[in-house]
Amino acid sequence: MNSGEAADRIEVRWARVRGRLRSEVGEAAFKSWLKPLTLRQIDGDVVRLSVGTRFMRDWVASHYGDRLRELWREEDATIGSIEIAVEDVLDGQDGGTAEPLRARAAVPSAPGFTRHEPVRRSVGSPGEIPGEIIHRDIGAPLDPRFTFENFVVGKPNEMAHAAALRVADATTLPFNPLFLYGGVGLGKTHLMHAIAHRISSRKPDKRVIYLSAENFMYRFIRAMRYKDTMSFKEQFRAVDFLMIDDIQFFSGKDSTQEEFFHTFNALVDENRQVVISADKPPFDLQRMEERLRSRLGWGVVADIHPTTYELRLSILQSKAEQMRVDMPPKVLEFLAYKISSNVRELEGALNRIVAHSELVGREITLENTQELLHDLLRASDRHITIDEIQKRVAEHFNIRLSDMHSPRRARAVARPRQVAMYLAKQLTTRSLPEIGRKFGGRDHTTVMHAVKRIDQLRATDASFAEDIDLLRRMVEG
Ligand code: ADP
Ligand code: MG
Question: I need a surface site. Which of 126, 189, 382, 475 has the fewest CB within 10 A?
Answer without folding.
Answer: 382
